[in-house]
Amino acid sequence: MENLTLEELCVHQVCIWKKSSFRESLECMARNGVFKTAVWNPLLDETELKSAKQNLIDSGVKAISMCPLVLLDEDAYPDPNGRLSAHQKFLENAAELGVESVVVITGGLPSGSRDLKEQRLRVQEELSLLIPLAKATGVRLALEPLHPMVCGHRSVISTLSEANEILDSLDANETLGIAVDSYALWWDSSLEEQIERSGQRLFNFHVSDWLHETRDVRLDRGMPGDGIIDNRLIRSWMEKAGFQGSVEVEILSEFNWWKQEPEVVLQSIVKSLPNL
Amino acid sequence: MENLTLEELCVHQVCIWKKSSFRESLECMARNGVFKTAVWNPLLDETELKSAKQNLIDSGVKAISMCPLVLLDEDAYPDPNGRLSAHQKFLENAAELGVESVVVITGGLPSGSRDLKEQRLRVQEELSLLIPLAKATGVRLALEPLHPMVCGHRSVISTLSEANEILDSLDANETLGIAVDSYALWWDSSLEEQIERSGQRLFNFHVSDWLHETRDVRLDRGMPGDGIIDNRLIRSWMEKAGFQGSVEVEILSEFNWWKQEPEVVLQSIVKSLPNL
User: Fold this and answer.
1) A76 has pLDDT over 90
2) Most buried of A37, A116, A133, B30, CB within 10 angstroms?
3) Which fold has domain A6-275?
4) Per residue in B202-212, pLDDT tens?
């Protein structure tokens, strides 16, 4: 398999969001030869949409995805109409920034609930409401299963098989696809088979690494090469299944990378290309 | 569904192992009306086998299982013969204590490896070597899938589906079965179906709870009722599939329960019966 080139690399803003503004993060990427990014919505929230758009133009960095759209964040939006309005706004912002796909996570169980089956049905219903909104704005949706360790509070969809099942039932393949995150799914013995099953649904590919001594269930991801995920193998499965998109490095790292200077993080990501 | 009775309850020694000896843990259980336990091997290691056996007799507590037999702990036993001798010793100790089944975990990836597929094949081979040893000692083996978050360093088998597949290939249903741990498997949307598929292979059932704010990937389990796992629902699936064994409460809790007095822990477990 050929090495990934710098042109195929996308660096997620989240990798450096603690020490850069929206604009600074793009400038840092451009300085390091990276011209694709995934927009981290909390960082976008700190600026004006119009400035953000201008920052993208000025830096020459293209926003290929935007995350996360939380499908059922009932603490933030207890009212279904309020929730749909927020989704609509998220999609409009993404469209305005020229984003190709919005990464959707389901959210966890509502407070007091233990009913995963019920919540998964609600995810399906909410997705069916979201699809027409996405079609109208021209932005694709990429459902992202997260690691089972965040099932309770971030995502009730934990495997690619579960995501594929939901997508089978919704039958909206041009609008609704999948984001594969190697950190979330690497452990699954059916991953190769499920990636093949996803096929044309594969919209996004996120990578990072699993550190041997993981200190947090969400914010201790490693630089590709520093852990035990065979990201190249997973990329080969993605490509065999027809995926032609970028590889998006997405490192949430409270203890290490978020503390480092953005320049250092970008240089390390570029150096990690042979591991991707 | 009927409430679990005290007679059906088993308390794993690991719940109180930091503040009691092998003997004291059994006495504490007996004082609280609990007469079934799972032996925690590290605690057994701190005493003599002969004394341990006498402690069980004196307390009236029966050891129904013993954990963990780590199938491929290559740091501890780089030499295959050394490993098999250690397994043999583990099984003999279990037999001597009257244990019905030994809980087997696979161990994680060997140092430097990223090859899950290869390691899973090695698990299968090692199990095939272990089965005749277990038959000879008359102790059953219960393969326990662990949570995907410990795939790297504790278990390369992360789902019940993966465990069922391995057992299908080994065809030794009287000797080799499965331990279902609710903490490890609760998030899986195919769990009910896979428990049904396991059927007569269901040898052991471990329960604890998933805390909303989990602080450690291994040692932050909660008391049943304190988290978001519907343990009663999972028990109903187990019973529908034919399981008639005990419910083994197994709480690894570095931040909370391991710091509390064993008496308090036992009382809390007994109080949690309606959640089981």
Assistant:
1) no
2) A37
3) TIM Barrel (3.20.20)
4) 999 999 999 98
Give the burial class of A165: count Cβ atoms within 10 A of its Cβ; 0-12 exposed, 13-18 middle, 19 or more buried: middle
Where exactly are the structural domains of chain B? 10-275
Prediction ipTM score: 0.95
Q: Is A188 on the interface with B (CB under 8 A)?
A: yes
Structure token pair of residue A244 = 């032609």
Determine if the pTM surpasses 0.90.
Answer: yes
pLDDT in tens, B61-76: 999 999 999 999 888 8
Q: Report CA torsion sign: B126, B129, B133, B138.
A: positive
B225: left (phi over 0), alpha (psi -120 to 50) or beta: left
CB contact under 8 A, B230 and A114: yes
How far apart CA B145 and CA B128 sit, in angstroms, is 17
pLDDT digits (tens, 9 = 90+) for A134-179: 999 999 999 999 999 999 999 999 999 999 999 999 989 899 999 9
Chain A contact set for B159 (CB, 8 A): 188-189
**Least Cα separation, residue A258 to chain B (angstroms):** 19
CATH 3.40.50.20 fits B10-275, yes or no: no
Cβ neighbors of A156 (< 8 A, separation 6 or more) are: A106, A107, A108, A109, A116, A119, A120, A123
Q: Mutating which of B109, B115, B116, B236 best tests the A interface, going by the most A Cβ atoms within 10 A?
A: B116
Q: Using an 8 Å Cβ cutoff, are A206 and A183 in contact?
A: yes
Q: What is the gyration radius of the CA atoms in chain B, in angstroms?
A: 17
